[in-house]
Design goal:
This protein has 9 helices and 10 strands. By secondary structure, it is an alpha/beta fold. The protein has one domain: Rossmann fold (3-Layer(aba) Sandwich). α7 links the parallel β9 and β10.
């Protein structure tokens, strides 16, 4: 069994997108939450975004939520880190895009690894599963109470990707989701975290993801197929960890992968939140 027991410098790499989010901020279940609504203003099909380590204020995730709202979903991005997300300024400090990363010297890679440990170690302790999962479950419960809400999905990225997978375990009507989508999840235990999946689950993985390698992805596919779970696993060639949320939109290949990953999620939720 392979386990994602740590995070690599990939978790701190990527690009900040340009654009101005158009949603609003309100408090739901005690958590500050970014809300993007469809033109119908109906919460019948709602999607909860489970963020990466950069949190709910990261422009990329808000702009993506706006796109899901345009597709007809009410999108919620709760501050599940309770004001303790890592600062966006760290995004480029540790690891550059793949083309540059491949040319780093051993000394540079060693320095990056050391910095990752100092940055992420304490943060991961503060936001371990025993702390974070009850917060996420509680938010799902609150969304299900919102008048007009019918079906609920979750989408997660990196750190939040694992919690999207775990959300697909739930059968309790108060906290269960109707479908889940995990983009390049990190810290997952393979096969353990996938053996409990009972709700429809879609995965988007990069072929160059150092957090979830080819062997692990193959194991995940085998587990889900053996269980007979409603699932799909898409592998994006040449893409690194974080590509669906933090890819370089100025690079044609990366932008195409980001767009495909967005379509993958929207089509999955259109099917299972209908």
């Amino acid at each position: 069994m392979s386990t994602g027991v740590g995070m690599s410098s990939c978790c701190l790499s990527g690009k900040v997108q340009e654009g101005k989010p158009t949603g609003r901020v309100e408090t739901i279940g005690g958590l500050q939450t970014y809300v993007a609504e469809p033109s119908s203003n109906s919460p019948a099909k709602s999607i909860i975004f489970l963020v990466d380590i950069f949190g709910w204020e990261f422009p990329n995730v808000r702009l993506l939520a706006d796109n899901y709202a345009k597709a007809g979903f009410t999108a919620y991005i709760p501050d599940v880190h309770n004001g303790d997300s890592l600062p966006i300024e760290l995004l480029q400090d540790i690891e550059p895009p793949l083309a540059v990363r491949e040319n780093l010297t051993l000394v540079q890679k060693t320095a990056a690894t050391a910095k990752v440990g100092v940055t992420l170690g304490p943060w991961l302790v503060r936001h371990r599963e025993a702390v974070s999962k009850p917060i996420i479950d509680g938010f799902i419960r609150e969304v299900r109470k919102i008048p007009g809400t019918d079906r609920v999905g979750v989408i997660g990225f990196c750190w939040g990707g694992r919690y999207a997978v775990l959300a697909a375990h739930a059968t309790d009507p108060a906290v269960k989701v109707d479908a889940a989508y995990a983009c390049h999840p990190s810290l997952v235990a393979v096969p353990g975290d996938f053996e409990g999946v009972v709700q429809p689950l879609s995965l988007a993985c990069g072929s160059e993801d150092s957090m979830l390698d080819e062997k692990a992805v193959r194991q995940i596919k085998e587990v889900l197929e053996k269980k007979g779970s409603v699932s799909e696993v898409e592998v994006y060639e040449g893409q690194v960890h974080g590509f669906a949320l933090r890819g370089d939109w100025q690079n044609e290949k990366d932008k195409e992968a980001m767009d495909r990953a967005e379509r993958q999620g929207i089509e999955w939720f259109e099917k299972y939140l209908a």
